Amino acid sequence: MTEMEGSPLQSDGPEPLWRQAADAILQEIASGKLASGARLPAERDLFTRMSISRVTLRRALQSLVEEGVLTPSHGRGWYVSAKVPKEFPNTLESFSETARRLGLTPSSDVLRAEQAPASLDEAEELAIAPGAALFHLERIRRLDQVPVAVDTSFFAASLVPDLSHIDFSSASLFGLLIDAGVDLARAETTIEAHGADPVLARHLDIDVGKSTLVMRQLIVDTAGRPLLSSTIRYAGDRYRLRTSFSRTGKTAAPRIPLSRADRE
Known about the structure:
By secondary structure, the chain is α+β, with helices and mostly antiparallel strands. Helices cover 24% and strands 27% of the residues. The protein is built from seven helices and eight strands; from the N terminus they run αααββαβαββαβαββ. It has helices at residues 17-30, 43-50, 54-66, 95-101, 120-126, 173-179, 198-204, and strands spanning 70-73, 77-80, 106-117, 133-143, 146-156, 186-195, 211-220, 226-235. It is elongated and about 65 Å long. The two termini are 29 Å apart.
């Protein structure tokens, strides 16, 4: 039986204990410590390690069954589903990092990779001088060769000098920036639905007008300085975002799962 590391959860945290327990199990699965088809440790071991009640643990396990992550077996325990639904994390993670964590192969078709002077709007967004050199990168992002999204990004060319030799069909932009010492701390994100225009439909191999999710992100450093702007347009049936809302104060609000990212 796979061993699962655990630590006491936060009883005074913004999320209810059952959701924290479910997320802890999801993390074990995402990290590969619990593989597809593996049996979870005994319930007594789980609720003891997490310092929660059996009732709380059962609610967490049942929520993962409803999400398609676990499969119950009467009298035998709980198993990781043979095909765990894929999801994007709540943490700031590159497309390549997410793909490899989920056991998928990332690749890209490069549509644009070049320097150009910053327009007034671009300069304002990144808090740089108009006309300063930007590096523009536009790619069709694929998972196991399936087109999932079109990613359009730009950032100050001074962050990473001389990218002309980089093959962005396989290279990770996040990896290059991090290796150059760029502090990618967090992303301010908005998401909205749009119908696919003819160009996007062709890139993603979908029908014109089909629903897409447009994610706009401004990535900043720990001091709040803007570093990278990106617009990622996902095929609506190949991406779902799993997130949560919470409210601080004397009473904790329950976690509200919106959805889960599915890139199959």
